[in-house]
Amino acid sequence: MNMDIFWGLFIPFLGTSLGAACVFFMRGEMHRGVQRGLTGFASGVMVAASIWSLLIPAIEESSDWGKLAFLPAVIGFGGGILFLLFLDHIIPHLHMGAERAEGPRSHLARTTMLVLAVTLHNIPEGMAVGVVLAGFLSGHGDITYASAMALSIGIAIQNFPEGAIISMPLRGAGMGKMKSFVGGMLSGAVEPVGGMLTILLTSLVVPLMPYLLSFAAGAMMYVVVEELIPEMSEGEHSDIGVLTFALGFMVMMTLDVALG
């Protein structure tokens, strides 16, 4: 495997793994305010990545469509929303703080469904990194290796708190520290796998690039609106989620503009 591609796919997974390792150093459950702030930060990174790293390049890739340059982005974005909605309904999973699982009935353990919930929303992040790396590999002038790495680093930064957010509840549910770490780490394993599959698909059908870029953006936005925003707003009113959302958005925007 090309080392540029390896690092582009591995860095987000490394972010999840380092976050999951927090279970070895933290005691008890994560404070609700901290969890809310980390969720807000992740949301801000994902929204900014969807716009600067995915939707804008998708529209630029379709510039020869003239006034209809928005069309592939609209189609892809809608497809990404519907794809995640479909997965949400066929995969049993349990969101943080929820009492009832979503998806079909199953006899899976509560901890397993917590991992599946995080794994589910890591799928679009892997796709996003994969399609941008594929754009770099196929020689699309608007997508440079620097912009691909900016997205990879941004996803890794927001994966760090996500790794902690999943491993700590697993520990609180009675798992040992090592099992909690592995559970948190494995929730991010879908990202390099999904990224590689996306690279292979895009390399086969290069004209799909604007559709796949916006597809990944739609999938990421589904996760933000359906899961992360409700989580950071749940319970007693607090401004921490909004402030960390803004911080995450600014960090990802800075990375993309400065490096891209």
Automatic annotation (TrEMBL):
<keyword id="KW-0472">Membrane</keyword>
<feature type="transmembrane region" description="Helical">
    <location>
        <begin position="6"/>
        <end position="26"/>
    </location>
</feature>
<feature type="transmembrane region" description="Helical">
    <location>
        <begin position="112"/>
        <end position="137"/>
    </location>
</feature>
<feature type="transmembrane region" description="Helical">
    <location>
        <begin position="208"/>
        <end position="228"/>
    </location>
</feature>
<keyword id="KW-1133">Transmembrane helix</keyword>
<keyword id="KW-1003">Cell membrane</keyword>
<protein>
    <submittedName>
        <fullName>Uncharacterized protein</fullName>
    </submittedName>
</protein>
<feature type="transmembrane region" description="Helical">
    <location>
        <begin position="240"/>
        <end position="259"/>
    </location>
</feature>
<comment type="similarity">
    <text>Belongs to the ZIP transporter (TC 2.A.5) family.</text>
</comment>
<feature type="transmembrane region" description="Helical">
    <location>
        <begin position="68"/>
        <end position="91"/>
    </location>
</feature>
<dbReference type="GO" id="GO:0005385">
    <property type="term" value="F:zinc ion transmembrane transporter activity"/>
</dbReference>
<dbReference type="InterPro" id="IPR003689">
    <property type="entry name" value="ZIP"/>
</dbReference>
<feature type="transmembrane region" description="Helical">
    <location>
        <begin position="143"/>
        <end position="160"/>
    </location>
</feature>
<keyword id="KW-0862">Zinc</keyword>
<dbReference type="GO" id="GO:0005886">
    <property type="term" value="C:plasma membrane"/>
</dbReference>
<feature type="transmembrane region" description="Helical">
    <location>
        <begin position="38"/>
        <end position="56"/>
    </location>
</feature>
<dbReference type="Pfam" id="PF02535">
    <property type="entry name" value="Zip"/>
</dbReference>
<keyword id="KW-0812">Transmembrane</keyword>
